[in-house]
TrEMBL record:
It comes from the Bacteria. Signal peptide: none annotated. The lineage of its organism: Bacteria, Pseudomonadati, Pseudomonadota, Gammaproteobacteria, Oceanospirillales. It comes from Oleispira antarctica RB-8. PANTHER family: PROTEIN COFACTOR ASSEMBLY OF COMPLEX C SUBUNIT B CCB3, CHLOROPLASTIC-RELATED, YLMG HOMOLOG PROTEIN 2, CHLOROPLASTIC. This is YggT family protein. The keyword NADP does not apply. Pfam families: CCB3_YggT. The chain crosses the membrane at residues 7-29, 67-87, 99-126, 160-181. Belongs to the YggT family. Coiled coil: none annotated. Keywords: Membrane, Transmembrane, Transmembrane helix. GO terms for cellular component: membrane. InterPro entries: CCB3/YggT.
Length: 194
């Protein structure tokens, strides 16, 4: 791999990866009905609207799920896969759509993993903080954490549900993402979410 190819991959991975993260966050924020007036939410909305508004005219939402933002995430991921393959002189195979889906799924799992890690650390360092980022992360995590907390027995004020959530994320990562990626013949390091 030439230095110019490496630079091209670095630029594509960075720029497309950051935009893909913002699009996935937009999907999650609307899915959990997070605070629209949060400054972080406002940034995410403004960053995704130029591509999302025209797409929504073609792809409507369904049952409170913003299908257009999910399709945009898949399109962004697929474009990145094609660009990286072309940059390396490889003809893009038919599996690009599957690889893009695996990448978006992996990125969703990473958002939950890092969000959970941030909230656990923040609960030790700055409990009861009203930071807009922490509020938004909690709004994203709470729908996934609520069923686990209902099942967990009362541990005298100690919340062990993050441990169970970390374990579930790792299980999904290994079984779904890595298993699907290997089964589909996806090259390692090709997808932003992985």
């Amino acid at each position: 791999m030439t230095p110019l190819t490496q630079v091209g991959m670095l630029v594509i991975n960075t720029l497309v990866g950051l935009y893909l993260l913002v699009v996935v966050l937009r999907f999650l924020l609307q899915l959990v009905r997070a605070d629209f007036y949060n400054p972080v939410s406002q940034f995410i909305v403004k960053a995704t609207n130029p591509l999302l508004i025209p797409l929504r005219k073609v792809i409507p939402g369904w049952g409170g799920i913003d299908i257009a933002s999910l399709v945009l995430a898949l399109l962004v991921q697929a474009i990145a896969v094609v660009l990286i393959l072309l940059l390396n002189g490889i003809q893009p195979p038919i599996q690009v759509a599957l690889w893009a889906s695996i990448g978006v799924l992996s990125l969703l799992l990473k958002v939950y993993f890092w969000g959970l890690l941030i909230t656990v650390i923040a609960s030790w360092v700055a409990p009861n903080s009203y930071n807009p980022v922490l509020i938004l992360i909690n709004q994203i995590l709470e729908p996934a954490m609520k069923p686990i907390r209902k099942i967990m027995p009362d541990m005298g004020g100690i919340d062990l549900s993050p441990i169970i959530m970390f374990l579930l994320i790792q299980v999904f990562e290994v079984l779904l993402v890595q298993g699907l990626a290997k089964a589909s013949g996806m090259p390692a390091g090709l997808i932003m979410g992985i």
